[in-house]
Specification:
An eight-stranded mixed β-sheet has the order 3-9-10-16-13-12-11-27, sandwiched between helices. Helix 2 packs across helix 6. It contains 14 helices and 28 strands. It has three domains: about 250 residues, BirA Bifunctional Protein, domain 2, CATH 3.30.930; about 110 residues, Rossmann fold; about 80 residues, C-terminal domain of ProRS (Translation Initiation Factor IF3, 2-Layer Sandwich), CATH 3.30.110.30. It is globular, with a radius of gyration of 26 Å. The protein starts with 12 loop residues before the first helix and ends with a strand. It is of the alpha+beta class. The structure holds one RNA strand.
RNA sequence: CGGGGUGUAGCUCAGCCUGGUAGAGCGCUAGCUUUGGGAGCUAGAAGCCGGAGGUUCGAAUCCUCUCGCCCCGACCA
């Protein structure tokens, strides 16, 4: 069986993932450990994610700002849990000048900063410091701000897109007069993320609240949207935090109430990152490479002219260019691949990159006024590549609907996988342990999916115990799905009466 | 920061044990043939063998030190 990639998902999922990232021209690792170069095709996907999400963030009343990359060390120190959460992965700037000493270029000892600066791992503190000055009166609230930025977290185990030392994201930060409003904001943005993942990335997610031990450092409550990858692991695709008054207390974000008193603001923060691109790859990719949902495909229809270095090439190119213009005229992102390589190679390059529709045009098509095309979501029947023919006008007229169908099909496929592999019939921890193959170490990477089960929502030391037991099976609690209602069975960890359902899964 | 591995052409790697001065595949360049579908043949460009020191007539190969990277653990959007 000839596939476009040299490794299949079944053989080795992590290797398959790397192979898609590489062969689809998404990104590559760089000279800087843990930092990646995002290539045009990968960045194009991110740009589309950015464009759409930016609009949705604005539509919900937020405005964009930009805050500094550097944060004074003392700012980080202000919120105790925040420090603890991020201290171990912080890049620190200590000097402002280089000097050649004994022929070695190094930080000039004379140019040491009085106070070190950290490269932002997230911006709660610097934004809180700003909010403190911006918020005076209840009339200044709510303050609804977002920024698109890069952040740095010195990760020990980087993986392209999924976990890199530097990554791109948006971080929303808001301040509110009271807790109810801040909580509503937290939940609103979580819902924006859920809809965005489903409608735009065609990636079904489960929105829910994180258990206490998985909370953002400094948050009162953390919510996430979790997506199931094709190896059954969970990917946290986005988070939204209700920060209570923790940061307001640490940074003195207060306002005068209508009654003349002084009150602390309730703040929120929420973000999604370039990790989404990794999620798209692991949700939709197949053994021929990436499959991009049309909504985030930088090129939705790629036209490959079959050129042979003969006089009729010119007519083929003219035909392709005319087709491209017609597709552009109906609002689609179309391109003609004029690169001087064999057309069969071009086709497979676009298959690997996941262009939703690939059109091939040869002299015979031109003569007959038809196009031959493949849809990437249904590339093969068995091993055979499926291609279809359509008259030029029919193809152009139906292209938008075709793309919509591809988008829907990718979502439905992923949704069916999520539904099929989310089990809720395991009643005890022993069942769960057996299901995830506790004994068989070599079984650790085989597909398992998620388990939904009731628990008694322990806290503190009791929760730590639960965490330990799960950890032995490489499992984590992903979240407690929203919108659930009892009655609940017995807690799978303790047998005590359950108070809510949680999702248990291996995770990225 | 613990345990293991590895560094040779753009990429993947062989050669190292048993020192004699550089190889393969893919990719790249050119030419010819082929082409309704991931082609073949021929020719070619490309590496002071991670770095420093040592042993030796001679080091990719042996020794010492050093740096980088990868995998497994602790941490993680």
């Amino acid at each position: 069986m000839t596939r476009a990639l040299s490794v299949t998902r079944e053989e080795n999922f992590p290797e398959w993932y790397l192979s898609v990232v590489r062969d689809a021209d998404m990104a590559e690792s760089s000279a800087v450990r843990g930092c990646m170069v995002i290539k045009p095709w990968g960045f194009g996907v991110w740009e589309l994610i950015q464009r759409e999400l930016d609009q949705q963030i604005k539509d919900t009343g937020h405005e964009n700002c930009y805050f500094p990359l550097f944060i004074p060390l003392r700012f980080i120190a202000k919120e105790a849990q925040h420090v603890e959460g991020f201290a171990k992965e912080m890049a620190v700037v200590t000097h402002h000048r280089l000097k050649s000493i004994d022929g070695v270029l190094q930080p000039d000892p004379e140019a040491k900063l009085e106070e070190p600066l950290v490269v932002r791992p997230t911006s709660e503190t610097i934004i809180g410091d700003t909010f403190q000055r911006w918020v005076q009166s209840y009339r200044d609230l709510p303050l609804l701000i977002n920024q698109w930025a890069n952040v740095v977290r010195w990760e020990m185990r980087p993986r392209l897109f999924l976990r890199t030392a530097e990554f791109l994201w948006q971080e929303g930060h808001t301040a509110h007069a009271d807790g109810d409003e801040a909580m509503a904001e937290t939940r609103l943005m979580l819902d924006v993320y859920r809809r965005f993942c489903e409608d735009f990335l065609a990636m079904p997610v489960v929105a829910g609240e994180k258990p206490e031990n998985e909370r953002f450092p400094g948050a009162v409550s953390t919510y996430s949207v979790e997506a199931m990858m094709q190896d059954g692991k969970a990917l946290q695709a986005g988070t939204s935090h209700y920060l209570g008054t923790h940061f307001a207390e640490a940074q003195n974000i207060r306002y005068q109430t209508a009654e003349g008193g002084v009150a602390l603001c309730h703040t929120t923060s929420w973000g999604v990152s370039t990790r989404l691109v990794g999620g798209v790859i692991m949700t939709h990719g197949d053994d021929d490479g990436l499959r991009l949902p049309p909504a985030i495909a930088p090129k939705q229809v790629v036209i490959v002219p079959m050129l042979r270095g003969k006089p009729e090439d010119e007519a083929v190119l003219d035909f392709c260019e005319a087709l491209r213009r017609q597709l552009a005229a109906v609002g689609l992102r179309a391109a003609v691949d004029k690169k001087q390589i064999k057309s069969a190679d071009k086709r497979w390059n676009w298959v690997r990159r996941g262009a939703p529709v690939i059109v091939e045009v040869g002299p015979r098509d031109v003569a007959a006024g038809v196009v031959t095309f493949m849809r990437r979501d249904r590339l093969r029947d068995g091993d055979k590549v499926i291609s279809a023919n359509a008259g030029l006008d029919d193809f152009v007229g139906g292209a938008a609907a075709l793309l919509a169908d591809i988008q829907a099909n990718l979502f439905n496929e992923a949704k069916a996988r999520l539904d099929t592999n989310l089990r809720s019939d395991l009643k005890t921890f022993a069942d769960i342990a057996a299901y995830f193959g506790a004994a068989a170490a070599d079984d650790a990477d085989s597909f398992k999916g998620w388990v939904r089960a009731p628990w008694c929502k322990p806290t503190g030391a009791a929760l730590e115990q639960v965490e330990e037991r799960l950890k032995a099976l490489k499992l984590t609690i992903r979240n407690a799905p929203l919108g659930q209602s009892g009655p609940y069975g017995a807690c799978v960890f303790t047998g005590a009466p359950g108070v809510e359902d949680i999702l248990i899964a291996r995770a990225y």
